[in-house]
Each structure stands twice: as C-alpha cells, then as structure tokens.
Amino acid sequence: MFSVLSITLLIAIAMSILRLVLGPTVSDRVIAFDVIGIMAISLLVILALYFERMLYLDIALVFGLIGFLGTTIFGRFIENGI
User: Fewer C-beta within 10 Å: the chain N or C terminus?
Assistant: First the structure.
C-alpha cells in the first residue's frame, strides 16, 4: 500500500517538475513549485507512517511552513514587485 502511494506521488512530482520547467508563465511555475512542495510533504507523511518515525512529521510541518511563506512571497512579487 505504501509503495503504491509513494510511486504515485513520485510520478505526480515528476509531472509537476515538467510543468515547472516548461511553464509558459511565471504563475504556472510558482503553482507547480507549490504543488511539488505539497506532494513532498505528503511523501514525508507516508514515510513517517511506513517507518514509524515521528521525526518525519516534524520535518513535514517545518517544510510546509517554509513552502507557505515562499508561495506567499512569490505571489506578492508577481502581483506588485518587491
């Protein structure tokens, strides 16, 4: 079960990386970057459940906070510059 979820998330991350590289606009790239971050957090949670290590949940929480701040900063930059 965990392997199917992990493989599915890795395929989705690969497709998002493709959108990050080929995205026609900056907005597409920022959204792809945010989606990659969310899927990486999901992968960390799955790994925490599989290995029964709660440290991965703490790392996922910190990664989520940093990803949220990064997306907010990029959105503000796109909207009206720094």
Answer: C
Give, for 67, the enclosing helix (H) or strand (E).
Answer: helix 55-80
Mention every residue, 6+ apart, whose C-beta is less than 8 A from residue 52.
Answer: none
User: Which secondary-structure segment (H or E) carries 2?
Assistant: helix 2-22
What are 40-60's pLDDT values in tens digits?
A: 999 999 999 999 999 999 999
The closest alpha carbon to 73, from 39, 46, 34, 45, belongs to: 34
Q: Which residues contact 14 (CB under 8 A, 6 or more apart)?
A: none
Total count of domains within the chain: 1
Two structure tokens written together for 48: 């925490």
pLDDT of 13: 95
